[in-house]
Amino acid sequence: MTLIKSISGIRGTIGGNVGDNLTPVDAVKFASAYGTFLKQNAKSDSKLKVVIGRDARISGPMIHQLVVNTLIGLGIDVIDLGLSTTPTVEVAVPMEGAEGGIILTASHNPKQWNALKLLNAKGEFLSGADGAKILEIADQEAFDFAQVDDLGEIFENEAYMDIHIDEVLKLPLVDVEAVAKRKFKVVVDGVNSSGGVVIPKLLEEMGVEVVKLYCEPNGHFPHNPEPLKEHLGDICKLVVEENADFGIVVDPDVDRLAFISNDGEMFGEEYTLVAVADYVLSKTPGNTVSNMSSSRALRDITEKHNGAYEASAVGEVNVVELMKKTNAIIGGEGNGGIIYPELHYGRDALVGVALFLTYLANQTQTVAEIRAGYPQYFMSKNKIELTPQIDVDAVLKEMEQVYAHENITTIDGVKIDFPTEWVHLRKSNTEPIIRIYTEAPSQVEADALAERFVEELKKIAGI
């Protein structure tokens, strides 16, 4: 069982011992630290507001009650969205004029996990510096709770998923009329969480016929909730059986988006962003950003539209920071995360679905044909487990020196760009592991490149 504290929040498995798992004590302690941080940085003496939403995990109601009442005890008002999504909470924070937000979700982790994801007043994930301050407050337990007359209040507002849908449909590049005319049929796998509610509702408002699969928000995930090919056999089969135009898969908190092509094959998480960016850039040319472990295909598409592409360090907060710096029109991560600043700076599956449907409505090709038309890249993802005695930074530094004559980036580990392929080597923040990501024009080449670097790393590390 595990408890992981990081600058982006706290996540862990339910049950077990305090400090080793996400127990009620840990949930209260971390919520107290976050609320205390907001109070310390308040710009006025007026009562603070925090927006809270959760996915459909079994532990959600328990963690939700603990966090809400902790904030009330600190004298902070809570805007309670109830069952929600990560991007919905991100949209709600600035609309409510709140000082922050918390999403109770462990994203793609299995059902025994839950987490507190923390937002700032813009509805964006906290900076590394702010996250570090919250961890320090939690360690010191430097909390100052409110007197009885100053306790916070709860304001319930369960309309925000509908409000979120309305905001998406108002976007200039979303054409509801064009989509409705095409009478699309789409299968949705909501992994029995919030996406099973909000994605079908969005589709129906766009005139799409919806076939629901695992759309009951009961928190009993019918398969591993990470939207990878090996977990999605049921929807791949159902898309073909229903003769659907395509399938949609989201993770439990609806910030990752994957498509199933009309032939029942994976469109590919890496290509979700590529396809949506292709449409957006065709209408509003500009720059793009993704992280260093994402496909080179986004760079190719961006350059096709005469834009500039840049890669950030891994992590949504890093992608957003670089997007702002480069005035990127669209960006995201290769795990199916679409960030479209026209609405907000956060990964948002609803935005991705609406933009993709509009794109498809203006095409004569099937989804499978659209996918076949993009640059073909294949990825391999591996890792090497090292002993704690090995200096991971020194190993990566030596690898950097070995390949100093190549095109190297070192903002997040070591990335080596070869003419037709690349390798990204980065260390884990929590354990002695080096992750090896490769991409090449074929799966055989990607796997071979990964195997080559695994052996080279082992040689340098002396294992």
From TrEMBL:
Q: Identify the residues that the record assigns to the Alpha-D-phosphohexomutase C-terminal domain, covering every copy.
A: 396-455
Indicate the segments forming the Alpha-D-phosphohexomutase alpha/beta/alpha domain, all copies.
8-143, 174-264, 271-376
- Note whether Metal-binding occurs among the keywords: yes
CC annotations in GO: cytosol
This protein's UniProt keywords: Isomerase, Magnesium, Metal-binding, Phosphoprotein
Q: Which InterPro entries match?
A: A-D-PHexomutase_a/b/a-I (IPR005844), A-D-PHexomutase_a/b/a-I/II/III (IPR016055), A-D-PHexomutase_a/b/a-II (IPR005845), A-D-PHexomutase_a/b/a-III (IPR005846), A-D-PHexomutase_C (IPR005843), A-D-PHexomutase_C_sf (IPR036900), A-D-PHexomutase_CS (IPR016066), Alpha-D-phosphohexomutase_SF (IPR005841)
Q: Name one Pfam family in it.
A: PGM_PMM_IV
GO biological process terms, alphabetically, are: carbohydrate metabolic process; peptidoglycan biosynthetic process; UDP-N-acetylglucosamine biosynthetic process
What's the cofactor? Mg(2+)
Give one GO term, molecular function aspect.
phosphoglucosamine mutase activity
**Record has Magnesium as a keyword:** yes
Its family remark reads: Belongs to the phosphohexose mutase family.
Q: What is this protein called?
A: Phosphoglucosamine mutase
